């Protein structure tokens, strides 16, 4: 028995040695888990899931940190108080998942698909590549680009200038559109079900690509003259034009294999919760904010879809609470409250139906700390660029005079589109409880109340209303409001030092970019020094 054990141990060590000798796990250029022989469809599916997971609320998703930075959620540890570093798990996993996962898969599709004539696959991969790099520039600034994923001869890629990367992204989008429309392609294989976003619908991919261009032009509008390009896109009319055309990944309900929303997987079966709902966010949505009265007096009908209160009818919490209003239980950002670290797994308010496919709050309460108590399917889609995003972007562009059109009318459409997104999730979720949709009359009343404030506001106040409504709608994709805040100063964010609460104290400045992964800086001789995340801005950030 002892000889057998030693032989098996030796064999395992030998296998691991040869496997590890072929690949430095920190190398962003070669990924042994994605062989070059993999079918194009499998590569595309893997890339799309990885990108969606890395955008949203997950342990390795950007929104895990950024939702705290822009005060949609709160955490007990970093990134609370704007704390983050290159050693953070989310930073490292997001960097690795995109470079060694999604971008490597997309490069293989582009290379192999070009050789085989599968140009529709190539076009889709180029659009996904452009979107992915645009997000990475938005959160990191300068990153490896021209030498990334170029094979073993370029193991230590340079970090390209972020503005130069953005200009190349537009070219990649144009190349992707051209490949989608190439009638001379040798092989027009339809990706079909392998394409989790549009099921191979080339017309929708073209619309997504052009809407991505509109988004990026808006992103750089304060540092570049983009009026001609913006109005040309709007005149074409070939943009995402309804909810069902949204650029998003739809999760499933299976737990074997598990294809549910990653935040649902973490939050609902586990007694230990990661995310608290920001009281600042909650108060604004309920129209009762002392720190930001922008929508005071207007109760948002989306609240029971966004947040689920485990307590009901004044039920006692398991421990003394740090922040409680009615049945809403949470903690405040940058707080020293002595009850902040009390166990609250079965008492705190949790992420709801929207955005992670959790429970709709019907007022009955109920713990979500064990498998038997769960209701909700975890099947809400991950938004990348939704129809409502396109409309909020267009409303901003019209308001500031970059685009033609009536900003007020577009904003009305944008708010209504954001409600349709919530109703879509309500209608299509797998949930053991009945989930109603928000009635049209209720939506209209809310919109009318918001537009009364809009009509009474200055031009600057109107911009704040547009971007605050976009912030509310973008729950689950915090990259977008993080970008908006750095570009424009809106939405206004919570300031612990001016909230009249002596227990909230902030000593750090707001992070204008994420830090680089420490290991890459250590091992790559072409890497820059670690940035100062409170001063080293992305090129389009001129605040």
Question: Can you characterise this structure?
Answer:
This protein has 543 residues and is mainly alpha-helical. The protein has 2 domains: 40-239 and 514-523, Serine Threonine Protein Phosphatase 5, Tetratricopeptide repeat (Alpha Horseshoe), CATH 1.25.40; 272-488, SusD-like, tetratrico peptide repeats domain (Four Helix Bundle (Hemerythrin (Met), subunit A), Up-down Bundle), CATH 1.20.120.840. Helix content is 45%, strand content 5%. It is built from 18 helices and 10 strands. It has helices at residues 2-21, 40-55, 62-69, 89-116, 119-140, 162-180, 202-219, 227-236, 262-267, 279-285, 303-306, 353-356, 387-399, 407-428, 440-456, 459-473, 479-488, 518-523, and strands at residues 73-74, 143-144, 159-160, 247-249, 276-277, 307-308, 323-325, 328-330, 350-351, 382-385. The strands form 5 sheets. A two-stranded antiparallel sheet has the order 1-5. Helix 5 (119-140) packs antiparallel against helix 6 and helix 13 (387-399) runs antiparallel to helix 16 (459-473). The longest helix is centred in the first third of the chain and has 28 residues, at 89-116. The N and C termini lie far apart (69 Å). Mean pLDDT is 91; it is low at 1-26.
């Amino acid at each position: 028995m002892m000889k057998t054990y030693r032989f098996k141990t030796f064999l395992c060590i030998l296998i691991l040695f040869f496997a590890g000798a072929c690949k430095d796990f920190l190398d962003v250029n070669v990924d042994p888990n994605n062989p070059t022989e993999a079918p194009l469809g499998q590569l595309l599916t893997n890339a799309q899931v990885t990108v969606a997971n890395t955008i949203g609320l997950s342990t390795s998703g950007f929104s895990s940190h950024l939702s705290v930075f822009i005060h949609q959620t709160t955490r007990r540890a970093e990134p609370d108080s704007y704390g983050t570093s290159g050693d953070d798990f989310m930073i490292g996993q997001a960097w690795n998942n995109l470079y060694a996962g999604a971008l490597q898969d997309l490069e293989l599709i582009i290379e192999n698909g070009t050789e085989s004539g599968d140009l529709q696959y190539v076009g889709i991969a180029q659009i996904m590549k452009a979107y992915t790099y645009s997000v990475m520039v938005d959160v990191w600034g300068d990153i490896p680009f021209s030498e990334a994923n170029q094979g073993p001869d370029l193991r230590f890629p340079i970090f390209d200038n972020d503005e130069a990367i953005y200009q190349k992204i537009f070219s990649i989008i144009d190349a992707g559109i051209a490949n989608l429309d190439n009638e001379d392609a040798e092989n027009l294989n339809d990706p079909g079900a392998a394409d989790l976003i549009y099921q191979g619908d080339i017309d929708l991919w073209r619309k997504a690509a052009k809407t991505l261009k509109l988004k990026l032009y808006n992103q750089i509008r304060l540092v570049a003259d983009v009026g001609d390009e913006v109005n040309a896109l709007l005149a074409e009319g070939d943009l995402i034009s309804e909810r069902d055309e949204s650029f998003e990944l739809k999760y499933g309900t299976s737990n074997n294999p598990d294809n549910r929303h990653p935040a649902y997987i973490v939050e609902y079966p586990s007694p230990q919760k990661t995310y608290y709902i920001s009281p600042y966010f909650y108060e604004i949505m309920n129209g009762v904010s002392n720190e930001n009265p922008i929508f005071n007096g207007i109760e948002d009908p989306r609240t029971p879809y966004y947040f689920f209160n485990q307590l009901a009818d004044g039920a006692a919490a398991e421990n003394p609470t740090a922040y409680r209003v009615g049945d809403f239980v949470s903690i405040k950002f940058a707080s020293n409250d002595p009850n902040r670290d009390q166990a609250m797994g079965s008492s705190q308010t949790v992420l709801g139906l929207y955005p992670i496919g959790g429970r709709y709050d019907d007022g009955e309460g109920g713990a979500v700390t064990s498998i038997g108590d769960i209701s909700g399917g975890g099947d809400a889609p991950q938004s990348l660029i939704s129809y409502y995003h396109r409309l909020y972007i267009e409303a901003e562009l019209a308001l500031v005079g970059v685009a033609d059109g009536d900003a007020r009318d577009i904003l009305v459409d944008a708010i209504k589109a954001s409600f349709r997104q919530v109703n879509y999730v309500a209608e299509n979720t797998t949930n053991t409880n009945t989930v109603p949709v928000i009635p049209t009359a209720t939506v209209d009343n809310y919109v009318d109340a918001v537009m009364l404030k809009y009509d009474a506001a200055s031009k600057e106040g109107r911009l704040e209303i547009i971007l605050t409504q976009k912030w509310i709608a973008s729950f689950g994709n915090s990259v977008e409001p993080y970008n908006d805040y750095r570009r424009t100063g809106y939405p206004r964010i919570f300031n612990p030092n001016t909230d009249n609460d002596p227990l909230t104290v902030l000593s750090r400045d707001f992070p204008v970019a994420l830090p680089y992964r420490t290991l890459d800086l250590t091992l790559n001789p072409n890497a820059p020094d670690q940035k100062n995340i409170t001063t080293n801005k992305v090129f389009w950030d001129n605040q």
